[in-house]
Amino acid sequence: MLLVAALALALIIADSQFGQLDRLRSWMGTGVAPIVWLGNVPGRIGAWSEDLVTGRGVLKERNDSLNSRLLVLERRAQKYAALAAENSRLRELLNASARVDDTVVVADVIGVTPDPFSHEIIIDKGSRDGISIGQAVLDAEGLMGQVVQVNEFTARVLLISDSSHAVPVQVNRNGTRANLLGTGDPDVLELVHVPETSDIRVGDLLVSSGLGGVFPKGYPVARVTEVSHDPGEPFSDVEAEPMAQLNRSQMVLVVFKEGAGSGMAPATEVSE
Fold it and tell me: What is the value of pTM for the model shown?
């Protein structure tokens, strides 16, 4: 013990006074470095695995949030386009009934009705989310339909292509009003009772007029694809194509009327 103590004391004095052990310490550090690195490998692997799993979860959550925000912003762009058309016609926008920032809830399409004669979808929001019968439903491109049945966790939406569905619309270019009916074909809608003298052209955008109070004003509904005039007939035959992707949209927006709440409006507005 005394020998070891004396040797340690001599090494301490030699190192502090003469710096003779720096090279030896460097050699020893280099020699044990692989051992230290191997000792840290299990911990590093565990941390890397944890970061990988956590990172994927965070990325998925962010991706879902961004998709919801994109859908809401595209819905706003629809409304801005309609308001811009009104402004170009020198209308009094301050007194317009349409609202750009309607309260909305984002929902996923989780089912389609199996009945070939009924155009309906099922969404994953229901009465617990404040959904009620009659609310308008949109996708990123335009109006899709309205809620016709509500359960606690889901709701059934009747699409505008259903033969029993009608939407009051107006031509975005000049404000001409008409009723747009479903034909049972998801790609074809029909304007009815359009006078022969009406100024409606192929390519005209049809937006919801807000008449009847069911659908909010100013949302894109369809674009005119065909206008035909039969001699002697008082009305023109006008066909249009839906703006919404009725058979393809996976995420939709349920619009709440002014003064209505969803019970989750604050969270929805934050996501916007």
Answer: 0.63
SS3 192: strand
The dihedral through the CA atoms of 226, 227, 230, 234 has a sign that is positive
Handedness of CA 8, 11, 13, 19 (dihedral sign): negative
CA dist 193 and 80 (Å) reads 29
Q: What pLDDT was estimated at residue 59? A: 75
What average pLDDT score do residues 51-55 get? 60
Summarised one tens digit per residue, pLDDT across range 230-268 is 888 889 999 999 999 998 888 888 988 765 554 433 333
**4: part of which helix (H) or strand (E)?**
helix 2-18
State the Cα–Cα distance between residues 125 and 248, nearest whole angstrom. Answer: 19
Cβ–Cβ contacts within 10 Å for residue 37, how many? Answer: 10
CB-based contacts of 107: which residues, under 8 Å, 6+ apart? 123, 124, 125, 137, 155, 251, 252, 253, 254
188, 239 Cβ separation under 8 angstroms: yes
